[in-house]
C-alpha cells in the first residue's frame, strides 16, 4: 500500500453522495471511488443540512479515515439531555429531560409486579429461542385486548393486525415503512408541536409529513379551530398522527366532544387515523380511560393504526417492548397487512426480543398480577399529580407578579409544558442545573415533592429575568 497520497477532492454539495470520496492506489493510478452513500431526493434527505467540508484538500496519510467527511451529529434533543445531566457535578442538579418515572428519592423504579414476574420466569427456566417475526403470540393477544378491550368486535372478528415492535419507536418505524411502501402518495399530518422523534421517524422512512396546528400559546391550550382547519385542508387519504392520551410535549388533550369532531372530520376526508399510545394508564391512572380516544374511532368501524409502548406504564424502558396494531375492515385485510409488517421487520431486525414480551403477557394475562400492576400504575400517576399540584402551589406562593399558573394543573400526564422559551430553558440548565428540553418541557416524573420549591424558584427567575 502506498504510504502517502496527495489528493485534492472538490465538492460543492453538502450531500454525502457528492462530498464523500475515498481514494485508493490501483495499478499505480489513483482511482476515486464514491462512498456508496447516495440520496436521490434532496428534500427528504435528513442529512442534507449537515455540512461536511465543502472543499476537501488533504494529504492523506495511511491512517486518514474514510469517514473524515462525516460531520459530528448534534446531540439528541431529549436523550442528549440525560448525557449532559450525567456530566454535571453539582449537588443541585435535577433531570427533568427524558420522560422516565423516578421515585420520590429520584431513583429509577422497577415495578414490584415486574420483579415478581421476572422471578417466575427465572424459576420456569424459559429458553431463549428466536421468537416468530411477529413476536410472542401471548403478548400480541393481550396487548390488542388491553388497547381495544377484550370484547371489542374488532378483536372478536380478527380485524386487528398486531405485530410486536421494538417499543413505541420501533412500532412507529414499522408503520412508517408500511406507509412508504403501500401509500407512496400519502403524507402524514403531525401536531405542532409533537414528540421530537416523530419527524425523525418519518424522515428516515422517507415519508413526507406536514404539521397541523395544535397548541395555542395565547390560551396555553388546544388550538382546536386551527387543528380542524389544517386536517380539513390536507389532501384526502392523509394519515393523521394523534396522541392517544397525554399529548407530548404539551400535556393537553382534546375533550371527548372534540375527539368526536376530529373523528367526524377524519371520516369525511377519508384520512387514516394513526394513534401513538405511549402512556396508556399513565395519564389518568386508568387503562380504559386512557384508551377511550382509540376505542371511539374503532367503534365507528374506521380503519386505523395504533403504536403502543410499555416503556412508561410498566417501566420497561430498556426492554423495548411495544406493538403495532392495524385495524382493518376485514379479517382478510388484517391477515395481509400483518404478513407485510412481518416482511418489513425481517430484514430490519429479524424478530423482536422476548423478555419484555413475556413480562407483559404474564402481567396482563394473570388477573391477580394485572390488579397489582393497575395499583402500581395508579401510584405512579398519583405521585406525578402530587408534584404537579405542589409545583403549582409553590409557583403561586413565590411569584408576586400575578401571573396565572393554572395551566400547569390543566395539563395531564408525565410532562408540563411550561411556556419557557429556548433562552429561558437554557437559563434553567446553565444557572439552576435543571435539565430539560429546549422547548420548555419538564418531566414531572423526574421531580420530587422536596424539589418543587427549588424548581419554582428556577422557573420564576427564568420567566421574569430572561427574555
Ligand atoms: N411516543 C411518544 C409520544 C413518546 O413520548 C415516546 C417516548 C415514544 C413514543 C417512544 O417511547 P419508546 O420507549 O420507544 O416506547 N418519549 C420519551 C422518551 C424518548 O424521547 O425516547 C420522552 O419524550 O422523553
Automatic annotation (TrEMBL):
Low complexity biased stretches: 1-22
Catalytic activity: L-aspartate + 2-oxoglutarate = oxaloacetate + L-glutamate
GO molecular function, one term: L-aspartate:2-oxoglutarate aminotransferase activity
InterPro entries for the chain: Aminotransferase_I/II_large (IPR004839), Asp_trans (IPR000796), PyrdxlP-dep_Trfase (IPR015424), PyrdxlP-dep_Trfase_major (IPR015421), PyrdxlP-dep_Trfase_small (IPR015422)
SUPFAM superfamilies: PLP-dependent transferases
Keyword tRNA processing assigned: no
Class in the EC hierarchy, top level: transferase
Aminotransferase class I/classII large domain span: 93-459
Pfam family, one: Aminotran_1_2
Cofactor(s) annotated in UniProt: pyridoxal 5'-phosphate
GO biological process: one example: amino acid metabolic process
E.C. no: 2.6.1.1
UniProtKB keywords: Aminotransferase, Pyridoxal phosphate, Transferase
Location of region: Disordered: 1-29
NCBIfam families hit by this protein: PRK09257.1
SUBUNIT field: Homodimer.
Free-text function comment from the UniProt entry: Important for the metabolism of amino acids and Krebs-cycle related organic acids. In plants, it is involved in nitrogen metabolism and in aspects of carbon and energy metabolism.
Family named by the database record: Belongs to the class-I pyridoxal-phosphate-dependent aminotransferase family.
Protein name from the UniProt record: aspartate transaminase
Organism: Ficus carica (Common fig)
Amino acid at each position: 500500500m502506498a504510504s502517502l497520497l496527495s489528493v485534492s477532492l472538490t465538492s460543492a454539495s453538502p450531500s454525502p453522495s457528492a462530498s464523500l470520496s475515498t481514494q485508493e492506489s490501483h495499478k499505480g493510478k489513483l482511482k476515486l471511488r464514491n462512498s456508496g452513500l447516495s440520496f436521490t431526493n434532496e428534500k427528504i434527505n435528513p442529512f442534507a443540512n449537515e455540512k461536511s467540508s465543502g472543499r476537501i484538500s488533504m494529504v492523506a496519510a495511511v491512517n486518514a479515515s474514510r469517514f473524515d467527511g462525516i460531520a459530528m451529529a448534534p446531540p439528541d434533543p431529549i436523550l442528549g439531555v440525560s448525557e449532559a445531566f450525567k456530566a454535571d457535578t453539582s449537588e443541585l442538579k435535577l433531570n427533568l429531560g427524558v420522560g422516565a418515572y423516578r421515585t420520590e428519592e429520584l431513583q429509577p423504579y422497577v415495578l414490584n409486579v415486574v420483579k415478581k414476574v421476572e422471578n417466575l420466569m427465572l424459576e420456569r427456566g424459559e429458553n431463549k429461542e428466536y421468537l416468530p417475526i411477529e413476536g410472542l403470540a401471548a403478548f400480541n393477544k393481550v396487548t390488542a385486548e388491553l388497547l381495544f378491550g377484550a370484547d371489542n368486535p374488532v378483536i372478536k372478528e380478527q380485524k386487528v393486525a398486531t405485530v410486536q415492535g421494538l417499543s413505541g419507536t420501533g412500532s412507529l418505524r414499522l408503520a412508517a415503512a408500511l406507509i412508504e411502501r403501500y401509500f407512496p402518495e400519502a403524507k402524514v399530518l403531525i401536531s405542532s408541536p409533537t414528540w421530537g422523534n416523530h419527524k425523525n421517524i418519518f424522515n428516515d422512512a422517507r415519508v413526507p409529513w406536514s404539521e397541523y396546528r395544535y397548541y395555542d400559546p395565547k390560551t396555553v391550550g388546544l388550538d382546536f379551530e386551527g387543528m380542524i382547519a389544517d386536517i380539513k385542508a390536507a389532501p384526502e387519504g392523509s394519515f393523521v398522527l394523534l396522541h392517544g392520551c397525554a399529548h407530548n410535549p404539551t400535556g393537553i388533550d382534546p375533550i371527548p366532544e372534540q375527539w368526536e369532531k376530529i373523528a367526524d372530520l377524519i371520516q369525511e376526508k377519508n384520512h387514516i387515523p394513526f394513534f401513538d399510545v405511549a402512556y396508556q394508564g399513565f395519564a389518568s391512572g386508568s387503562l380504559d380511560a386512557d384508551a377511550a380516544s382509540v376505542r371511539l374511532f374503532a367503534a365507528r368501524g374506521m380503519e386505523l393504526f395504533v403504536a403502543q409502548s410499555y416503556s412508561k406504564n410498566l417501566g420497561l424502558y430498556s426492554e423495548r417492548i411495544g406493538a403495532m396494531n392495524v385495524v382493518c375492515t376485514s379479517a382478510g385485510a388484517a391477515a395481509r397487512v400483518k404478513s407485510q409488517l412481518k416482511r418489513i421487520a425481517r430484514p430490519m431486525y429479524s424478530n423482536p426480543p422476548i423478555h419484555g414480551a413475556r413480562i407483559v403477557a404474564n402481567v396482563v394475562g394473570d388477573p391477580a398480577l394485572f390488579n397489582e400492576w393497575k395499583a402500581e400504575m395508579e401510584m405512579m400517576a398519583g405521585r406525578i399529580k402530587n408534584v404537579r399540584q405542589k409545583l403549582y402551589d409553590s409557583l403561586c406562593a413565590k411569584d408576586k407578579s400575578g401571573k396565572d399558573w393554572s395551566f400547569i394543573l390543566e395539563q395531564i400526564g408525565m410532562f408540563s409544558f411550561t411556556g419557557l422559551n429556548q433562552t429561558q430553558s437554557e437559563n434553567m440548565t446553565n444557572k439552576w442545573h435543571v435539565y430539560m428540553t429546549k422547548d420548555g418541557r419538564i418531566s414531572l416524573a423526574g421531580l420530587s415533592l422536596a424539589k418543587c420549591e427549588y424548581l419554582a424558584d428556577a422557573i420564576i427567575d427564568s420567566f421574569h429575568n430572561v427574555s
